Amino acid sequence: MYYLYTHNDLDGLGCGILAKCAFGDKVEIRYNSIAGLNTQVERFLERAKKKKHLFITDLAVNEANEQRIEDFVKSGGKVKLIDHHKSSLHLNRHPWALVEVAYDDGRLASATSLFYDYLLKGRLLKPSPAIEEFVELVRLYDTWEWDEAGNLEAKRLSDLFSMLSLEEFEERMLERLMTGEPFAFSPLELEMLGVEEERIGRYVRRKKREIVQTFVGGHCVGVVHAESYHSELGNELGKEYPHLDYIAIMNMGGKKASFRTIHDDVDVSAVAGQYGGGGHAKAAGCPMTEEVYRHFVAEPFTKEPLRMDAFRNEYNVKDSTYGTLYENGKEQQMFIFASGDDWIVDVEGDELNRTFPAFEEAERYVKRQYGAWLVRDEVYIAYLMEHMSHRKSQALVLM
Ligand SMILES: [Mn+2]
C-alpha cells in the first residue's frame, strides 16, 4: 500500500492525480494544509508498519518529523519527500528528500512536475501526452510562468480547480487523463470559466481601490484584505503599483497572511520566514500572529487607501519636462520637473535637497515616501495657474 500526503492546492492535487494514475486503488491520499501536515505525518509514523510506502509532496516537514522519518527509514520504512519550495532545500541532506526549485535549463519546478519525473524514472507510471500536458499546465500555473508565457490554459485549470470541490476536480481530471485523448476543457467548463474570469476581474478592480501603503521592516508594502484570488491580486496589484516592494494579503477569517512580489530583487519567503512561515521568493505565506496583525493590520488601519494614477491625461503625464503633479491622501502635492539633466521634486512648495538622474527614480521616491498618485488634468491645470507666477512654468505654453 502506498500513502501520499500532499498539499491541498492545485500543485498538491496534481501529485494526488498522478498517484491515482500510477497506483490506482493501492494509494491512500490525504490533502493537507501547510499547517496540518506535521500532525498527519507524526500520526502516520507512530502507527506505521515497515511495509508502508509514504510519499510527501509539495510540503515540508518540521524538525521533529525530519528526525522521525530518519528513524523510520533507518528501520526499513520507505519515504520520499518531493518538494520545490526554497524553504525546504535543507531537507536535501537526507537521501529520502528530493527538493528542487528549478531545472538545469532554468525552468522552475513544481511538485507535480518533480513527482511526474520521479514516477517515470521509477517506471511506476507510463508516459502519456495528456498527462504530460496536464503536468505542464500545473507547473506553469504554480510557478507563475504562465503569466509571462501567456498560457491561459494554465490559468483556466487553476480557475476550474477553485470552482469545484477537491473531489470533483480530481474525478474530472482522472477521467480525462485515463482516456488517452489530448487534454481539453469541456464546453460547459469553458462557459463556467468565462463567468469566473469576469468575477475575478471585478474583485481585483475593487481591491485596487482598497490597498493601503505602509513600511514594514524597511520594505514599502501594499496591504490588502482578501480571502480569495491571492495570486491574481498579487500579480495585478503589483503591476498597478510597481513602486511597492511586495503585496501583503491579509485573510482575517483564515488567520493567514500571503506575500506576493513581482520584483526579482525582493524575496518574500524571507519576509514570511521572519513570521514563522515560508514559501517561494515571489509567493510566500505565514500564520496571522499578533506581530503580523500589528504590522500589517493594526498599524496601517487608519491610513487612506492608495489611488491609481489618472490614466486619461493629456497634460499631466509622466516623464514630462514641463512637470508632473502628484497628490496623496493627506492632500499634499508633489511636483516633479526637469532642470538640466536632473529631476527635482517639489513638496508643498519646497524643493527637496536631493535631485534624481531619471524621472522614474523621482517618481518612485515620491510614491514610496508620500504614498502619492498622478492627479487628473484639472487638478494639474489648477496647480499650474496658482503657481505660475512664482514658478514661471512653461507648461501653459503647451495648452
Ligand atoms: Mn507547489
From TrEMBL:
Superkingdom of the organism of origin: Bacteria
SUPFAM superfamilies: DHH phosphoesterases
A Pfam family this chain is assigned to: NrnB_C
Oligoribonuclease NrnB C-terminal domain span: 323-393
Signal peptide: none
Record PANTHER family: 3',5'-CYCLIC-NUCLEOTIDE PHOSPHODIESTERASE (PTHR42146), OLIGORIBONUCLEASE NRNB (PTHR42146:SF1)
Protein name: NrnB
Organism from which the protein derives: Paenibacillus mucilaginosus 3016
